[in-house]
Design goal:
The chain is an all-alpha fold. 73% of the residues lie in helices and 0% in strands.
Length: 173
Amino acid sequence: MITQPFKQAVDQKDLDRVKIMLRSSLSLDLTFQSFQEMLAYALNQFPNLIEPHDGTEFPNASVWTKTYASEVREDLMDNFSAERIAHIKEVHEHVYAKERHEQLNPTAATTNETKRTTPSVNVVSLITTLGVAVASILVGVLMDLSIVTLATTAVVASIVVGGVTYYLVKKSK
């Protein structure tokens, strides 16, 4: 996504700021989609943005870590080459595989988040049981039932509804 500040940096021909913003987009969008869009936009104003590669040889994947990925992004400021950009993409695909997958498939991330925030069976049963108990007491008071009848009705209703809720929640897992 091309932001207004990025457009301003390009319009003002602020090459360092453009490079910084491009580099920053690599940290935020591990899919490289924003970077590609921003790069295409910047190349219209800066046809020489992509520099010749400085000859740096990159290590193999056995040493790629998040720290290394950060260092390679920093090196982009000194040598904004196509080879370095391609290498950063490979490093990100390797180091940030899970995070990239979640950015590429937001529904998978949402499903995982939903699983983490689903209340436990005990909480669901407790809330339902308390709701039924309160409702039973209100009905008993409105119908002018004795305290013994009222308490018995509330206890039986709570046990039945709590058991059914527990069974349904357990079955849905």
